[in-house]
Amino acid sequence: MITSDDLAKLAIRRVIFHDVPRNPRRGPNEVILMDEETEVDPARRALLKTKLTRVINSKRAYPICFDPNTSSPVPSHVRVYTKNHDANQFIPMSQKVAMHLFDIQHGGISPGLLCAVDVVAGGLAGLVLMKLEREEGARLELVQSPKGKRAFAMSVLDNLVFTDGTRLFKTGMFLRTGSGDDDFRAAACDTQLNVCASEDMARFWLRFLGCTFTVEPRVTTQRFYDSALNFINEEVSDPVDKSELYEHLHSQMKAEKKTFSPKAFIEEYVPQQYQVPFRERLKSDKVPLTTFPKDLADIQRRLRHRAYLTSRGIRLDVPAESAEVVDVQSERIIVNDAVLHVDRQ
Amino acid sequence: MIDVDEARKRWLKERQSFSEFGVLVAGRMENAVRELGIWCQTSSRAKEPHSLIKKLLKGNYSYDSLQDKAGARCVVRHMCEIERVCLQAQELFDCLRRDDKLTGLGTNRIGYNSIHLMVRLREGDPETASYPAASYIAELQIRTFAQHLWAEMSHDSFYKNEGVLTVLPVQLVRRAHLMAGLIEVADHEFDRLNREITSSPEAQMYKALERHYYTFTTKRPDPSLSLEVIKLLLPLYNLTVPQIATELDKFLYVHRDALKHVYKEAEEFTTSAFLYQPEVLMIYERLEANQLAVRKAWISRFPESELEGIANALGISFD
Lengths: 345, 319
Prior knowledge:
The complex is a heterodimer. By secondary structure, chain A is of the alpha+beta class. Helix content of chain A is 36%, strand content 23%. Chain A has helices at residues 4-8, 42-56, 74-84, 90-104, 155-161, 199-209, 217-235, 239-254, 262-269, 272-284, 300-303, and strands at residues 10-20, 61-66, 112-121, 124-132, 142-144, 150-152, 170-176, 184-189, 211-213, 259-260, 292-293, 305-309, 315-319, 326-328, 333-335. Chain B is α+β, with helices and mostly antiparallel strands. In chain B, strands 1-2-5-4-3 form a five-stranded mixed sheet.
């Protein structure tokens, strides 16, 4: 995963935009490829860096890696470009990536501008790909060099990137960490992962990037759940804290949101005295603190609970998969289980 | 008899390289002192041609034996920092002579009070090709601001020079000594104040942060604003100030490279003003530990956009 330290060290070297309309399969639409980079002044360069930080470190960004089964040419372009980091290859590489975006941008996928950004972060060569949706009435100014070469003017950044309306974009960032094909730290942000979009729409951006989640979402979800549950059982001594945290864990796991942020969970629900040890526990269990797409497939049964409330105010919470241990009779309730631990207050 | 024309010619030819040597010495000192977490103002110079000639005319030196043709200076805030800076200089350079003006004054006299080191590059230093140790020697002055005040004020006057003082009327000599004494007392008082001021937790925290802050930048913060922010942030830890300082030491050790980069690349007009406050380091640690709690505390007193500006500069998003 790309870290906040990587983003703090980020420097923008060059930027280019290409206009990529929806591909009608048949019809006149064509990609408008630029032949020149967009010149960006230092102030806008700083704003662009801020914008990229906001996107890639956001709760909607997640770690990715190249999908070995992808047919997308993007991984190959990223690998070659970041290996040589040859400025002369930046424009042709970005044009090929734009053409690929056009090839797959059918149906309900909205058109937009593809922005490629050549970056370095603390000595690591990198590439950022962003898709910017055209906003109603946004003016996109082209500039032409004396030799007839075209580039989008830097005002495109003002009109599409630095607007107050859109805070997050479909973005992929790749930082090369070694010379191997998979020596990258990479992250993607896709706002559509959080809306009720079809699976195809939701995965469109990853498909375009030729990437997949670093660890399968169902595995990460299960790891987080297990780690949190063990922590609650082993480290939280106060029965009230224990019960509340347990409730929060389950309600947040079952919430409608399609992504889960351990960091946000800690900040919002874990009592302050447990925040540091909980974070450490997650780290030692190799659970990312960054947002991951939530997939409950492997823990669905364990999340189902049956709660019993007795006439004297006693509350009993039983995992659905262990429901048979509870024997409910007319005047009494029997739990056929051994006592593991007693908290006294 | 000194050949003034020859000396002038040689100096006009060589002055630029001595000036560059002074810049090198001052630059190395600035970096080294910064690593100590001490705020320090550095400068350098090569002697003005007229100044060089005047010194030669006094007859004590030849052109080649004159060792302070290049000079560098480190001015610190407190007396207690002087010795650490001297040791750092002695590690960095080959030190030919140490002239401690205070020791020279003895116990019953007052006056110019500073440390002068005659330094040259160590054997094996990659820069010795450009600045051979045999010819390139610089006078490195290390002093406090109070000592600097005395030195600057007395530079164009005669009361720095003991020889001149002896021929002045007694009342004038007495007044000159009183001024030097006042300045030395002020220096001691600033030193004591600096030690004693840390009675409140906020001030203790400020001192702990300042130590790290000056390793990244020499820009002067606004201490009263710092105390206000620290007061806001301290309740976010359930720890004592020394415990927080230990946590910060560990945190800053891990994020040192990122911070160095942020300060190196920061553009003053686009960066949050809080970047140039020591408490930014505490804000950074808290943003990584519990962003929501910091934001909640912050907006009770300051605009959230400033906090977001700091966060973004440090690679952290609020989205």
